[in-house]
Write a structure and sequence with these properties.
This protein is mainly α and 458 residues long. The chain folds into three domains: 151 residues, HUPs (Rossmann fold, 3-Layer(aba) Sandwich); 149 residues, Rossmann fold (3-Layer(aba) Sandwich); 92 residues, Arc Repressor Mutant, subunit A, CATH 1.10.10. 46% of the residues lie in helices and 10% in strands. The chain is elongated and about 100 Å long. It starts with a strand and ends with a helix. Bound molecules: glutamic acid.
Length: 458
C-alpha cells in the first residue's frame, strides 16, 4: 500500500492541502503502508524555495512524517519533478513510438485563430488534431508532445468518496503532456511519477476529478494497473464560498504561530470530512485506528473557526502541563494554572510575560488600576498584604480562608477584597486563581508588588 501527497510549492500549505496530506498519512499508518511526499515544482514561475520550505515545515509541525521524499530519500529519488525530466522524456518517447502520442508544432498564433473561430461559432475550443498524422521527429523546433485521446466511448471509474464517475471521450482533447522545453504538464507528470513510485492509491482534492479520466487513459496507454482514486470535497467558508483568507487563517503555519496545538488542528481537519459516530475528540492514535474511507463525506465541509478554537482548548486541557511547558517557555506549574482557561498557547506565553516573568507586572491594565487601586481600597489592600504575609506558608486554601473571614467581618464579598490584590499582583483582573498565582510568584515578590501598588495609590 503506497500513497502520496504531491503539493506544488506555489504557496503556503493551506488547511485543505493539510487535510489531503492527513488522510493519506492516516491511511498509510493504519495500513502499515508507505507515505510518499513528492514536490510538483513544474510551474517554475510560481514555485519558490520559500513555499517549499513552508510546506515541509507545516507537515513536520503537524507530525505528518513521510517515508520517502525530500530530506528522507527513498528508492524512487529524486522526489522533485524538475529533477525528473529525463524520466518524463522516456515515457513520452515510448508513447510516441506506440503512436499513443505525437509531436505537434502548431504555434500559439495557429491555435489562437482556431480558438477565436470557435468563439465566434459559440462552440467550445478543442485541439483538432492537426499534427496527429504528421509523425514529426524528435528535435522538431518548438514541438510539444500531445496525448492521443480516444474519440469514441467513455471512461468510468469508481471513486472511493464520490462513487462512479463517467466521462465521455468526446469531451476530451489531445492535450499537451510535454512542453517544448521538456517540462511535463500536470496530468502526465503525476501519472508517470505515480507509476514510477508504485503508488496504489491516489487521494487528493476534488478539484482534480476532471483530470482523473485523462490520467486513467494515460495509465492504460502505459499498460500500468490503475491506482484506487479518492477525491476529497473542498473546504468551504461559512458563506459556502471556497475557503480563502477572508474566512480567517488558512495557512497551517499561521495556526502554529497563533498558539494552536498540531493535534487540535489535525483533530479538527479530520472531522471536517470524516465522522465516527458522534465523537468529536480523537487522539492521533485513535485516528490511526479508526480512520476509514467509508465515512469520508462526499459533500464539502464548512470551516468553523470557533469549533477549531474550542477543540484547541480541549486539547490544551488534556495535554500534560509538562509537555506544554517547553512549548510555551513557561514552567509546568504555571501551565497548570492556565490550562483550564487558555484558548491557545500564546495566551499562556503572554500571561507569563505580562505578570510572572519580572519583579513587577510588565503591564498594568489601566482600567483595572483605575477601578481597583483606589484610595478607598488602600486600607483593604494593606490588610490583605498582612494576611498574605501571615498565611502564605500555610498554602492557597489557608490564604483564601483568611481572606473570606476578613471580607465577612466587614460585610463585604470576597471579590471586593480580592480584586484589588489581583490587580496589584498581576496588573489585571483576568488571571488564574489568585492564591495559586501568589504561591507561584513567591511570598516576597507578591508583597513587593502589593507595596508597589500601595505606593502607586499614594
Ligand atoms: N500538485 C497537485 C496539486 O497540488 C497534485 C495533485 C495530485 O495529488 O495529483 O494540486
Amino acid at each position: 500500500m503506497r500513497v502520496r501527497f504531491a503539493p506544488s510549492p506555489t504557496g503556503f500549505l493551506h488547511i485543505g492541502g493539510a487535510r489531503t496530506a492527513l488522510f493519506n498519512w492516516l491511511w498509510a499508518r493504519q495500513q502499515k503502508g508507505t507515505f510518499v511526499l513528492r514536490i510538483e515544482d513544474t510551474d517554475q514561475s510560481r514555485s519558490t524555495q520559500v513555499s517549499e520550505q513552508a510546506i515541509l515545515d507545516s507537515m513536520k509541525w503537524l507530525g505528518l512524517d513521510w517515508d520517502e521524499g525530500p530530506g528522507v530519500g527513498g528508492p524512487h529519488e529524486p522526489y522533485f519533478q524538475m529533477k525528473r525530466l529525463a524520466t518524463y522524456d522516456r515515457y513520452a518517447e515510448q508513447l510516441i513510438s506506440e503512436r499513443k502520442a505525437y509531436r505537434c508544432n502548431c504555434t500559439k498564433a495557429d491555435l489562437d485563430v482556431l480558438r477565436s473561430q470557435a468563439q465566434k461559432e459559440k462552440r467550445g475550443f478543442k485541439y483538432p488534431g492537426t499534427c496527429r498524422e504528421k509523425n514529426l521527429p524528435r528535435g522538431t523546433p518548438g514541438a510539444v508532445v500531445r496525448f492521443r485521446m480516444p474519440e469514441e466511448g467513455a471512461t468510468s471509474f469508481k471513486d472511493l468518496v464520490k462513487g462512479e464517475i463517467t466521462t465521455q471521450h468526446k469531451e476530451l482533447q489531445d492535450e499537451v503532456i510535454l512542453r517544448s522545453d521538456s517540462v511535463p504538464l500536470y496530468n502526465f507528470g503525476a501519472v508517470v511519477d505515480d507509476i514510477e513510485m508504485r503508488i496504489t492509491m491516489v487521494a487528493r482534492g476534488d478539484d482534480h476529478v476532471v483530470n482523473t479520466p485523462r490520467q486513467i487513459l494515460m495509465y492504460q496507454a502505459l499498460s500500468y494497473p490503475l491506482p484506487v482514486f479518492a477525491h476529497l470535497p473542498m473546504i468551504l467558508g461559512a458563506d459556502k464560498q471556497r475557503l480563502s483568507k477572508r474566512h480567517g487563517a488558512v495557512s497551517v503555519l499561521q495556526y502554529r504561530d497563533e498558539g494552536y496545538l498540531p493535534g487540535a488542528l489535525i483533530n479538527y481537519l479530520v472531522r471536517l470530512g470524516w465522522s465516527h459516530g458522534d465523537e468529536e475528540i480523537f487522539t492521533i492514535d485513535d485516528l490511526i485506528k479508526k480512520f476509514d474511507w467509508a465515512h469520508v463525506g462526499a459533500t464539502a465541509g464548512v470551516f468553523n473557526p470557533q469549533k477549531l478554537e474550542w477543540l484547541n482548548q480541549q486539547w490544551i486541557k488534556s495535554t500534560p502541563a509538562e509537555d506544554l511547558g517547553p512549548q510555551t517557555g513557561t514552567p509546568a506549574a504555571f501551565v497548570k494554572l492556565m490550562q483550564e482557561r487558555a484558548k491557545n498557547l500564546n495566551e499562556i506565553r503572554d500571561a507569563w510575560a505580562a505578570y510572572m516573568a519580572g519583579e513587577l507586572p510588565a503591564v498594568y491594565d489601566e482600567k483595572a488600576v483605575a477601578k481597583q487601586l483606589t484610595a478607598e481600597n488602600k486600607p483593604l489592600l494593606a490588610e490583605a498584604r498582612n494576611l498574605i504575609g501571615e498565611h502564605f506558608a500555610a498554602g492557597p486554601a489557608a490564604m483564601e480562608h483568611a481572606f473570606r473571614a476578613l471580607a465577612e467581618s466587614r460585610g463585604l464579598g470576597l471579590g471586593k477584597l480580592a480584586q484589588p490584590v489581583r490587580v496589584a499582583v498581576t496588573g489585571t483582573t483576568v488571571s488564574p486563581p489568585l492564591f495559586e498565582t501568589i504561591v507561584l510568584l513567591g511570598k516576597d515578590r507578591t508583597l513587593r508588588r502589593i507595596d508597589a501598588a500601595l505606593e502607586k495609590i499614594g
